[in-house]
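This part of the workshop introduces the protein records we will be handling. An example says more than a description, so a record of this kind follows:
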Amino acid sequence: MRILLCNCNSPPSLSPTPPQKPPPSFLPAAAVWTKKTLITALSGALSLTLLVSSSSPALSSDSPPFQPPRPPQLSTPLPDRCNEEEEEELQNKFVLKPEFVTNEEIVQEAWQIVNDSFLDTGRHRWSPQSWEQKKEDILGTSIQTRSKAHELIKRMLASLGDSYTRFLSPAEFSKMARYDITGIGINIREVPDDTGSVKLKVQGLILDGPAHTAGVRQGDEVLAVNGEDVVGKSAFEVSSLLQGPNETFVTIKIRHGNCGPTESLEIQRQLVARSPVFYRLEQVSNSPSSVGYMRLKEFNALARKDLVIAMKRLQDMGASYFILDLRDNLGGLVQAGIEIAKLFLNKGETVLVNNRTASASEIVASALHDNCRAVLVGERTFGKGLIQSVFELRDGSGVVVTVGQYVTPNHLDINGNGIEPDFRNFPGWSDVSQHLLKCNLHQQG
């Protein structure tokens, strides 16, 4: 079974003769960080070195050239909609009323987080002495308003010279903390047919979400919502019709496939986590092989689980090999990237990358490349090798702080440099095999 990790810029297409059967980042918050240290966080062949500010975890014959399938045209995400009670509940969850914490205490709290957690990655603007002096200067006078306290925190963080370390207002922190939508777990796209008419097609399903469980499948056409014909409506309008209060019901009429039977389904809306995985089965032209295509949009807490589920289902559907599309994946949870890289360390042929392959995506690409499991094809990656944590302050605001840095197994500092690909254009399979063979011989010798 061949595994290809795709992160290309231009939409490619499958080769007619593929090989036969034979992948703002932040971590959960920690209350206290105690010291700066160097740790090796990855086991086995992964061997990515993480430089962090604490050992505590925190809130990472010539064969024809291969051309992977066209990436799915994903529709825009379903809009977030909440009733007033839900918004109030969310605010109460994340925001303490101002009288419980003084302006000086908020500034002190932000200062302490940086003092305990911040990793200066070479700008040399931070030192314990200068940081202590900054606290004394700021807290030497009374801070009259909360907005003034927030402004002082912004200035304090800006003095570090790290563009990733920044302040989050209560609204910004609340938005970042929110990952759920109320709906049935589908994305809809407007697809023109041969006659010029526009059909509303299901172009993405949340694994085991309400719609998927009820029987909606990729490629189904949405015909009506709650008895209302949706012909002539936009995908956004129909997505809005599908939204509603949690645990209420919506009835949708769908046509399975292009010419299949129609069916009305009553589906209960749920708060469903956004799955980062999109998958489909591709039939290869002039070949009995099928390709399991998986697109990973970000590395969140669901990434590994949903990717494993997608792989299993595609295997059951007859996939001979896989493509993991990391195109424009800007990263996410570092640990998710580590776990996903482990899934593919035993097998791999090609990783396609572009200049928006960043952070946790670069972890996956470099881990497979440096361990001779894959070649890199495409463009130099973005070059974000810093790790941030998000910390909540007691008034509901927050700070994002750089707490670590990673280098590749070959000790390349990714940050600001990126990873150079082995090939700019798609290589032939023989070229891939020869490159990986040379890589392994070099490592052994």
About this structure: Residues 392 and 398 are 4 Å apart (CA to CA).
